């Protein structure tokens, strides 16, 4: 049914970069046979999932949304993919994204943008826009995304689905093409909180192949999603998010959601996180610095695109020509920014200062979580904008991440929950819950 749905609607949505009908059906049949033989299978066995094309898969190409990796078929599976396979989830295909996950609209994909199923003249958010569009359009019941500065939560908000960025280190990054290694996390995207929790449980947990993986039991997210009891829960509304720059329709939907939480018995207070407003500035130094380092591996020698500028070209000339042809403008912009921020003489002024701000933001979270159990804010300042509307203005696009970035800088988990449509645009609004590290279960309970 999902494959039929993809065949019927993905030409319009461009959510998938690759569909593996045969592979998905083979897994589904295998699960059926094992179930018929009486085997006890995982809860999600047989339920199909779409995987962001930043996560490597054997048997299917992984492009990272870039010309640099066009046609590359990885020689191994990411740990999260291995876990999906072990649990018997058929993998429908690989979903569209901004090139190397850099963007908030999916317009930086080298393969054309995915579109928002609510209005195909609009962006689905990004960078996990393909995963979000696929789930929102019933092309897949579940998907995996990645979130470095909001790339799961923001597209979830723009398309009216649930998206979760787990605690940093909670889900393995092994086999996830690195954007900014100290910020990247894989997480679930789904139509309900419980569905997201079920995927979370499958992919989370310690992995010796990821040196930042946390060696502790996975928080009881499924149980929390089933419980859904906020009575007595202390919920902090982040004072800094919701005023200037936030669309009135987003604000109003957020206020209604907070009222519902209070009615359900939560104790709602306002909390100030004074350094959150510097999050974007710090992120746009830390992230490009890591990007410039991580993307150095695309050197046209080991794998990926190789362009020969002329006969007898030197290795350096081949690298330059290949990187020029293989990377899009946004990726180049970030490599330049990052290389600059890390250069000697500038390192302390830029990278060093950004790291200090990062610590201050982590302290804001610590102070807030002494007062409340979870924090809440709108996920994004606006609803989905028109394709092309912000293309000429990278800064206005960067501002869309104001509310999601602090969680990545501090490593804490966040969940975006759809809370209805904005009255001024008729488009979905998301509310974001934030919790202390390794308390991901609180997000699922509150949502
Ligand atoms: N939109 C943010 C950026 O462009 C976040 C990207 C992400 O989370 N992968 O960097």
From TrEMBL:
Keyword hit for Nucleus: no
Active-site residue list: 52, 127, 151
Entry's Gene Ontology cellular component terms: glutamyl-tRNA(Gln) amidotransferase complex
Domain Amidase as annotated: residue spans: 1-443
Keywords: ATP-binding, Ligase, Nucleotide-binding, Protein biosynthesis, Transferase
Single GO MF descriptor: transferase activity
Gene3D superfamilies named among the record's database cross-references: Amidase signature (AS) domain (3.90.1300.10)
GO biological processes: translation
EC number: 6.3.5.7
Protein family (similarity comment): Belongs to the amidase family. GatA subfamily.
Function summary: Allows the formation of correctly charged Gln-tRNA(Gln) through the transamidation of misacylated Glu-tRNA(Gln) in organisms which lack glutaminyl-tRNA synthetase. The reaction takes place in the presence of glutamine and ATP through an activated gamma-phospho-Glu-tRNA(Gln).
Subunit annotation: Heterotrimer of A, B and C subunits.
Protein name stated in the entry: Glutamyl-tRNA(Gln) amidotransferase subunit A
